[in-house]
Every structure is written in structure tokens, then in C-alpha cells.
Amino acid sequence: MIVLTFTLVLILGAAIAGFIGSLTGLGGGVVLIPLLTLVFKVDIHYAIGTSLISVIATSSGAAAAYVKEGITNIRLGMFLELATTIGAIMGAVLAKHVSTSGIAIVFGIILLISAATSFIHHEAKIDGELPGRLSNWLRLNNEYPTETGMQPYTVKHVTGGFVMMNVAGIVSGLLGIGSGALKVIAMDRIMRIPFKVSTTTSNFMIGVTAAVSAGIYLREGYIDPGLSMPVVLGVLLGAFIGSKILFKAKTRVLKFLFAIIISILAVEMIYNGITHKL
Amino acid sequence: MGKHRHTPEDKDLEIIMGNLLRYGVLFSAIIVVAGALIFLKQHGFDQSQYTFFKGEPERLTSYKRIWQTAFQGRGRSVIQLGLLFLIATPIARILFSIVGFVLEKDLLYTIITVAVLMVVLYGFL
């Protein structure tokens, strides 16, 4: 394929990845890496570097739209960034010692975990349960706008959430994704934060986390301009459209859509990793 | 419970921060597009090759060399410079947050945010 065609096709593909990533709050990475490696046959190292850049673009580009809605919990995001950024450095260092097929398999497993948690349905409960001492001290409890007015919520299991965030950071640095799925799990499942809040707060953290590992990857030579350029431009376009839709979309539909897509991609990645096709 | 809602200052700060980031991304994207035009003009009809990882030349991995070669008008370097700006936007967000927390006299979150900044700079430099 000549460079011009490759560029144009990739812009389109990345736009779709960015759109889905933005809708689900996961960044473009989870769709982008399978797209680059499985469809465009790009070496996974390049794919990871490129994906990190696009993850930053999605996160930073959508931030303005998210904060206007008043959903993002800035203090919670900042506190958890401590865990994710330290993890991101650990992950980027770890990436040097893991083989290509190893990365593909780990990637697939992470995708499956993300999908599985989405299929387990849990009612959208906002409990008035008392928050722990730590979340009071850190002033993490907040409220968010719903159709029926401002809804207060409390933050549970701060320590558990923090540890999970560190894992999310490691995964982000290792696989070049925002690991928004793990972040949402940490906040949604462990810390018991409403889905819309966890999604947007996750988006808030993803950019900073990805920037840490992107800096490391750039200096290691994993970031190629010819590849990153169409991907970044495409993802930005897709994310822009996605961020316009978020507030109206239904939580369950979002999760279901996302779960189906990534399950298919996960199986592909694991299969290709085991057969050393990647 | 419920004492720590979004204060008006909080909300303003977030909106400014969000816009700042958006302009940062827009600025980076413009540089990337400019680089892309140069790059495609020179190499648009070459064969693309990304199947094997070769690593990038030093002019695309060292901050100083990216800066230098971008100003020599080399397409890939200009794109890389734009990408570098993009990577830096979240760092601007952290800096801005520190200012915000200082203005709000929030000592705890000033310390937390400075700690995040130090971790990020460690990865970057």
C-alpha cells in the first residue's frame, strides 16, 4: 500500500476507534491496537506507541466537554493519578522485557476481563451508605447532575481502588492503552461510584497516565510519525463526535456495545499471540 | 456528608482547564497536519512499511533533535514535534491544577498534585 492510501484508510479506522473509545470512556487504545496489528499488520511495538499518543489526544480533547457537564470528580482523579502514574512507569519498563506474542496475549486477557465485567449486570444503585474515614479525609465524596437534579454519592474502599489503579497504570504502560476499563472497574465496582462519574473521571486520568509512558516510549523509538499522524487525527475526529453524544447515551447500551466488540477482539489477539502471528 | 460539593471556583477552574487542554490539542493537531502535508508531499507515493519494528532514528527520539530538525522543515520531525506538544498537554493540566489548589488554599491536594507532577516528570525526563 502506498503511504497516501495507508494514511487515509488509517484516519478513517482511527476515527471509528476514537468514537467508540470516547463513548465508553476507555480511550481509543482498546480498539486501536487490534485494528493496527490485526487489520493493518503493524508491528505491535509501533501500535503501542501510536496508541498511547491517541489515548492522550482522546483524553485531552474530550476533557472540555466532560467538565462542562460537571460530572468529573477532580479530587478523586488527582488522588488516583498518584497510583496510575507510578504504575505507568513500572509498565513501560516492564514492556522492554516482554515478547511481542506475550504482549498480545496479556492484551487479549485484559480485554476479556473488561468485557466480562460489562456483562455482569448490576443495578444502577446510588447508595447512601456511609463512606469510609479515608474518603472523608480526602474529601472524595461529591455529587453529579442527573435528570432529576443533583445526586450526591459517596466513595467506598479507597485503598482497594488505589491498588487497582496502580495495576491499571502498569497495564497502561505495558500495553499502550489508557486501561480505562480497569480504571472504570476500580471506580465502578470497588469504589462504588456512579458509572457516568467513573467514566469521565477515568477520562481525566487517562491522559496523564498515558503521557508518562508516552514520554518513555518516544525516547525508546516506539513512536513513528508516519503512523501516529493519521491515527491521532482520526481519533481526535472520532472522539469529538463521541463526546457530543455521551451525556444522552444510556449506560447499559454503552456497556453492552463495548463488551461485544472487545470480546471479539480479545479472542483474536490471544489466538494470534499463541500462534505467534503477531 | 455533602459538605464538599462543587464550589463555584471549582467549577470555573475545571472549565478553564478543559478549554486549555482543548486548545493545546488543537495547537498540536495543527502542527501535526503541517508536518503531514510536508511528509505526504515528499513520501506520499512511497510504499508503507510498518510490519517490522526497526526503531526510530535519533532525530525522532531526542527532544533536542526533534526540535532542531523540525525547524529545518523535515516533515516527520514536524509531526513528531506536534506529537510532543500533545504528550505535554496533560502535564499542563497538572501544573494548572496545582495553581488552582494553591488558590483554593487546599494544602492536601496541592501536595498530592505536586507529587503526581514529580512522578510524571520522572517518566518524561
Automatic annotation (TrEMBL), chain A:
<keyword id="KW-1003">Cell membrane</keyword>
<feature type="transmembrane region" description="Helical">
    <location>
        <begin position="197"/>
        <end position="217"/>
    </location>
</feature>
<feature type="transmembrane region" description="Helical">
    <location>
        <begin position="162"/>
        <end position="185"/>
    </location>
</feature>
<feature type="transmembrane region" description="Helical">
    <location>
        <begin position="73"/>
        <end position="95"/>
    </location>
</feature>
<feature type="transmembrane region" description="Helical">
    <location>
        <begin position="229"/>
        <end position="247"/>
    </location>
</feature>
<keyword id="KW-0813">Transport</keyword>
<dbReference type="InterPro" id="IPR002781">
    <property type="entry name" value="TM_pro_TauE-like"/>
</dbReference>
<feature type="transmembrane region" description="Helical">
    <location>
        <begin position="254"/>
        <end position="274"/>
    </location>
</feature>
<keyword id="KW-0812">Transmembrane</keyword>
<dbReference type="GO" id="GO:0005886">
    <property type="term" value="C:plasma membrane"/>
</dbReference>
<keyword id="KW-0472">Membrane</keyword>
<feature type="transmembrane region" description="Helical">
    <location>
        <begin position="102"/>
        <end position="121"/>
    </location>
</feature>
<dbReference type="InterPro" id="IPR052017">
    <property type="entry name" value="TSUP"/>
</dbReference>
<keyword id="KW-1133">Transmembrane helix</keyword>
<protein>
    <recommendedName>
        <fullName>Probable membrane transporter protein</fullName>
    </recommendedName>
</protein>
<dbReference type="Pfam" id="PF01925">
    <property type="entry name" value="TauE"/>
</dbReference>
<feature type="transmembrane region" description="Helical">
    <location>
        <begin position="6"/>
        <end position="39"/>
    </location>
</feature>
<comment type="similarity">
    <text>Belongs to the 4-toluene sulfonate uptake permease (TSUP) (TC 2.A.102) family.</text>
</comment>
<feature type="transmembrane region" description="Helical">
    <location>
        <begin position="46"/>
        <end position="67"/>
    </location>
</feature>
From TrEMBL, chain B:
<keyword id="KW-1133">Transmembrane helix</keyword>
<feature type="transmembrane region" description="Helical">
    <location>
        <begin position="107"/>
        <end position="124"/>
    </location>
</feature>
<feature type="transmembrane region" description="Helical">
    <location>
        <begin position="20"/>
        <end position="40"/>
    </location>
</feature>
<dbReference type="Pfam" id="PF07843">
    <property type="entry name" value="DUF1634"/>
</dbReference>
<protein>
    <recommendedName>
        <fullName>DUF1634 domain-containing protein</fullName>
    </recommendedName>
</protein>
<feature type="transmembrane region" description="Helical">
    <location>
        <begin position="81"/>
        <end position="101"/>
    </location>
</feature>
<keyword id="KW-0472">Membrane</keyword>
<dbReference type="InterPro" id="IPR012861">
    <property type="entry name" value="DUF1634"/>
</dbReference>
<keyword id="KW-0812">Transmembrane</keyword>
